[in-house]
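User: Some background: our group keeps a shared notebook of sequences we're curious about, and every so often someone picks one and asks for a predicted structure to add to the entry. Today it's my turn. The entry only has the sequence so far, pasted here. Could you supply the structure so I can complete it?
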Amino acid sequence: MTTSNSFSTIRHEIAGIPVAQLANDFGTPAYIYEAALIRDRIRELNEFDVVRYAQKACSNIAILDLVRRAGGLVDTVSANEIRRALAAGFRPASDPPEIVYTADIFDEEALQLVNEQSIHVNVGSPDMIDQLGERAPGSHITVRVNPGFGHGHSRKTNTGGESSKHGVWHEQLDDCLRRADRHGIAVSGLHMHIGSGTDFEHLASVCGAMERCAMIVGRSLTTISAGGGLPVPYRDSDPTIDLGEYFRLWDATRSKLAEEFGHPISLEIEPGRYLLAECGYLISEIRAVKEMGDNLFYLVDAGFNNLARPIMYGAYHPISISPQHGSERKEHDVVVGGPLCESGDIFTQEEGGVVCARRLPKATVGEYLVIENAGAYGYVMGSNYNSKPFAPEVIIDGGKAHLIRARQSFEEIIRGESIPDWE
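Assistant: Of course. Here's the predicted structure to add to the notebook entry:
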């Protein structure tokens, strides 16, 4: 890995369009995405046979359509994510499967839709094999294996090991094969995603675990998936991943299995954050500048209802100011908070809720503050807390901004609510 990142605390434009113009045209807070960067990220992964976008990172159908047109396939984790994929033009019952359903359970709606649309399933629990077998005997499935260890930038993003609910425990793989045999189901794929972030020493252990599990499954195997969790830089000091080395390790595993089984093995990767994080920005307006003892606060009109990662994980996001006039501003320590009725509504905090200050330029009410690297797990984890509306989503392509989701109205917020006839 190498380090070559530089995040500025002043930002005048996004993808060639002034921040002030975007705020004027679409209001604040607003999510802005760069289409060109998503395409670039998909191209960077083209050594893999399949780039399967984990749409839970950002599931707007315009994003899904862009991924499809750029050659990516899609992973889904719910019935409505399947429907989103279909609405964006991905085809069911294709080879390789353009849509895969990955989960640790079936709810009734998802099981019915998987059966009706012949969606390939990546099972995360042995019970799912029996449930699918009763509806769709003779299917092909992928098994997501928990190898007994994990990795992640937060305990909440570590998806491996005995404290994780995700995947089939590696010692139960034989049981899964027996269940599949009872229903005439072929285990044609193995998937191993064990958390966000990676280092190559750890990755070598993951590849070794994949090889051991593949030998248990045997010659029915035609696909292995490296999962996701590719890191992106959030700080100047954060490394950027060496994709060539990442691919080399997985390709060596794939080659060993292909030689062992006597047929080609397809190698998939499942990026979510890697494709979307750096392309996304949350534009907000500074509505108050206030001193609280030794702390100076910038209070903006975006809150954790818009971007929950800081309050959930203590996640760090680069922050910049878009000044109305000039570019030279003295910097000082600032705490950035939102409008919500919670002390935890702070964008500059560490895991555990520790409030931190950030060196930011001097700014005034009415200027814009941009939270960067916010494209992944931003809008999709939003809420209507404090009856705040969901922000609009905008994508910039070729110098033109397209509204791909309108700001939620009050009528849309209360749709479905009703007052009973009180006695």
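Suggested note for the entry: The radius of gyration is 23 Å. Residues 31 and 282 are 5 Å apart (CA to CA).
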